Amino acid sequence: MEEKTTGSTIMAALSTLTPPQISSLTTTISALFHLHHRRLSSLLSSRTLFSLSLHHLHTLSLNQKSLLIARHLLSILSHLSHFLHPKTPGSPPNNTSMVNVNHRDLDSVLLLLLLCELHQHDPESLKTLSPEKWRESLSGYVSTTMLTLSGIGFSDSETLRKYVEVVTRCRKFVEVMGGGGDGKEGREVAASVAAVVALPSVEVEQGGKECAVCKEEMREGRDVCELPCEHRFHWMCILPWLIKRNTCPCCRHQLPTDDVYGELERQWAVLVKISDGYNY
After folding, report:
1. Cβ contact 167:73 at 8 Å
2. For the domain that residue 232 is a member of, what is the CATH number?
3. Residues 220 and 172 both lie in one domain
4. pTM attached to this predicted model
5. Shortest CA distance to 195 belongs to which of 266, 128, 141, 124?
């Protein structure tokens, strides 16, 4: 079966939302686009701020630029994830440290994405100019695409279409830049501290079942750890496991992680399952 594109995966996941959820998501996304447009406007109207942001980009390696875009993408996806994953008792709190992007990094990633977009639109436009002249060229480009960048006057469907375009562009950049260091999917990453702390302790009501880690029986009346997939383990067995990997030893269910690329991979796997019509 042919793998879905990024855009088709997002659109299929969006189709599972109710009309009120779509309306709320669109409002959230519109506010996000307005914020990005304000930051870009401030960046391009200030010679000093532009120079500082451009200098910051020049100091970053390719891997660091990839990480910057990956964090930005995770922040954008978090708005959709909020509606696709309703909170349940015992679920971990939102990983705000993962999705929040400070102003310097936001300015830098918006500038980086804008430079890439202009280069794709007109590959020769920046080659003939010195970096000192880039601000003027970028300002002219933004002024002709202001409605697209800001989402002003967009209908719900147009806002969602723009959202899909932004996610697709960011994900493509991360893939092209070799996100994740070694570029290998499925690498082991630790579960996030917040996710582990939120795991419930349950009492074994009937003995006989064994812990999949140590292969010993979980005795009746003993408190054990229950993962979101409902598999249970001795606390002393599962904690060392989750320090090294964020997957269930039995079914490979993934817990949230503090690793940016690992969390992107986890959230994308969830979107793919939802878009394919599976319950998660």
Report:
1. yes
2. 3.30.40.10
3. no
4. 0.81
5. 266
